[in-house]
Structures are given as C-alpha cells and as structure tokens.
Amino acid sequence: MVSPGMDLLKCEIPIEQESVVLHEDVVTGLVLVGIVNGFCTVGAGTMAPREPNSQISRMINESERLARLFCEKKWPVLAFIDSHQPDKPEEPYPLHCIAGTDESNLVPALQWLENEPNVTIRRKDCIDGYLGSTEDDGSNIFVDWVKKNQIKAILVGGICTDVCVLDFVCSTLSARNHGFLTPLEDMVVYSRGCVTFDLPLHVARNIKGALAHPQEFMHHVGLYMAKGRGAKIASEVSFHGPKKP
C-alpha cells in the first residue's frame, strides 16, 4: 500500500523514467555498488536489515540477472565492496563492513562474480566509489576501468540509492563533464536495481542522533537527485543488437 505522503512526494517531484536498450555496439559497463552482507543480509551487521526486506531482495535479484547477462556477453562489470578498518569509522554511520569479516563479502547470490574474468572487484573504504578507487600513487581503478574498456555507458545499481549510489553517480558525472572519463557519455541508474535502507520515524526517535530514513521516500529522492545531476533513470533494461546506422 502506497502512503498518501508517498503519493504527494511523487506528485511534487516526479521522475521521468525510461526503458533503456543496451546495444551490442555501444560498450556498456555494469557497476554494482555495495551489495554485501553488511547491507543486505538479515542480521549480518550494524547496517544490515533486521528482518527480510522485499525491496532489498528485488535489488539483489535484478543485480544477479543483469550480472549474468553481462558476463555471458563478456561485457565489463565492476563491483564496489565496502571494506573498512576498525580504527577508521565512516561517520556518521556506525562501524560496519570491517575488512576480513563476512559483512564485507558479496551476498551469496553474487559471490560467483569473483571468479569471472570480465569482473573487477574494488574494495572501498568510503561512501563514494569514485573517490574510493584512488590508489596511493594517485591512479584510480575506476577511471582506468572506463578507459581500458572504452566504456561509453554505465549501468549502475546497488545500495543505497541516496547514499553510495548517488555519491558515485554525482562524482562520475562531474568527472565526465570535466573530460576525465573519455569516452564515457551516459550514466544510467536502474531504479529496480537500486534500494536504500529503512529507518522509520518511530524507530529513529528512540536512537540517539539518528535521522529518520523511510525507505521508499529516500529511494525516490535518491533517483530524483541522480536525474538532476544528469543521469538517466531506467525502469526497464533490455538488450538488443547493434544500433541501426
């Protein structure tokens, strides 16, 4: 059941979504953000859901479906995995996804990605995957991935729509606009392949310093902000042969 508040939000800040077709002759990369146990598996950590969540399950299913299609086609895939050191908190969030723990591993449905030759795994220690791809020598794993594969479009999904996904999208689009990511042209956020966490107001009131974070509201806001930065928002993703001249 959709709440009256959600209806009002969609009325006041509507999002025009589109059906996106990925063509064989346009190099497209798939980026999966943060689909780890610590964010997705019930009871797996401080930031994990406390009970089964249908929206998280849908995001995982859609991510697995797309990942398998990309791997069948040998198209490039990059997965960002949160991996933090216990002495370096990521404020304002509690300690989570500590390196070497199961929290910091891909969810079971995606662990097969680690053995695929077209997949790049990047363990990051900050919210923004673009910044989290920077190496000590100043190079950037994500930038190198785009350029090495000559990626013209990126399809992105994962968790959280309004946090890690949004930060990555904004940084990537800014870098594209400054000519740092040639030949990248398009950034597509797949709405069914993204999700955010749920912290209702009545729960947040009992947690010191917590901000309410209603799941469906904030998912919509994250998509709206991404579109405002220049991303396409896709309600459907399909594959097709080469574009007609």
Strand content: 15-25%
Order of helices and strands: HEEHHEEHEHEHHE
The backbone outline, from C-alpha atoms, is globular
Terminal Cα separation, in Å? 45 Å
Mean pLDDT: 93
The stretches of 5 or more residues where confidence is low (pLDDT under 50) are none
User: Over the alpha carbons, how many angstroms does the gyration radius reach?
Assistant: 18 Å
Helix percent band:
25-40%
What's the helix and strand layout?
Elements: H1 4-12, E1 18-23, E2 28-33, H2 37-40, H3 54-72, E3 77-82, E4 119-124, H4 141-149, E5 153-159, H5 161-177, E6 186-195, H6 201-204, H7 215-228, E7 232-240
Parallel strand pairs: 1-7, 2-3, 2-5, 3-4, 5-6, 6-7
Helix pairs in contact: 5-7
Protein name: Isochorismatase-like domain-containing protein
GO biological process, one term: pyridine nucleotide salvage
Pfam family, one: Isochorismatase
Keywords:
245 residues; alpha/beta; seven-stranded parallel beta sheet; globular; Isochorismatase-like_dom
